[in-house]
Amino acid sequence: MERIFKRIIEIENRAKEVYSEGVQEEHNMKEALMHDINKREEQIRQMADEKISQLVMQGSKEIDEKISGMDNLVKKKLILLEAVSQKRSEEWEEAIFRDITGE
Known about the structure:
Elements: H1 2-101
C-alpha cells in the first residue's frame, strides 16, 4: 500500500511539474507574442511615417510646380501689360502733343 501512495505522490509531483512547465511556456509564448506585436507595430508606424513623408514631399512638389507656373503666367502678363501700357503711353503723348500743337 505504501508503494501505491508513493507512486501517487510521484505522479502528483510530476503533474505539478508539467503544470508549472506549461504555465512557464504560456508565459514565454505571451512574451514572445507581445514582442512580435510591438515589433510589427513599430514597422507599421515607420511605413506610415515614410508614406506621410512621401505624400508631404509630393504635395510640396506639386504646390511648388503650381506656384512656379502661376509665377511664370504672372510674369508673362506683366510683360504684356507693360507693352500695352508703353504703347498707350506713346499714343497719349501723341494725342496730347497734337491737341497742344493743333496738328
